[in-house]
Description:
Layout: E1 2-6, H1 24-36, E2 40-44, H2 63-69, H3 72-79, E3 94-97, H4 103-106, H5 111-122, E4 126-130, E5 153-154, H6 159-164, H7 175-181, E6 185-186, E7 197-200, E8 203-206, H8 212-224
Parallel strand pairs: 1-2, 1-3, 3-4, 4-8, 5-6
Antiparallel strand pairs: 7-8
Helix pairs in contact: 1-8
Amino acid sequence: MKVLIVCTNHDTYPAKSSKTGLWLSELTHFYDVMAKRRIMMDIISPLGGVIPVDERSLDLKDECNLRYWEDDAFRKKLQNSPKPSEVDATDYRLVYFAGGHGAMWDFPENSELQHLAKTIYERNGMITAVSHGICGLLNIRLSDGTLFIQDKYLTGYSNVEEALVSFVSEVPFYLEDKLKERGAHYTKTVIPFMEFIEMDERLITGQNPNSARKVASKALEELFEK
């Protein structure tokens, strides 16, 4: 069994000089849960090549972040990721869209990522995502032409969380609003930034960075314990 992880290539904001990219713990926490079960994983990005890491997420007091950040083999995966056309969707049982603000620019309109996710899902696989990574699900259409997220229960980075980190003026859209516009049943925790996941059959989503580990644990439970 193999898992496909999708990370962003996008590292700039329209106005802020700080850099964005992948939110590190959304990758490391998910990866760590899977690695402990000896699951094989491939990490791709929309354009291939370097996956930038949001400088605000480089929290090396987080033991899991530190361990992977100091792991040469892991860092090489971030420096030299394949693009979607270089992997075969039929190899994977699950796809995971990691977040970080960067994803909002290069996930939603990428038809190759949409095709990969659709193929995995329609072969009875799972789609999982966390925080801003969930924007990768916005435009997935199934073979019958319906929007994948229509009528699905899911969560994702909330308007309140976006306002609290004061990046509202920088983001191209509010994720919560877009998910609702597409007909999804959006849910969230009452207290921002608390761990929270939502599950709808073979779709598992986490609201914010603190939810990545739980998304991975729940996915493993669904894949192996049913």
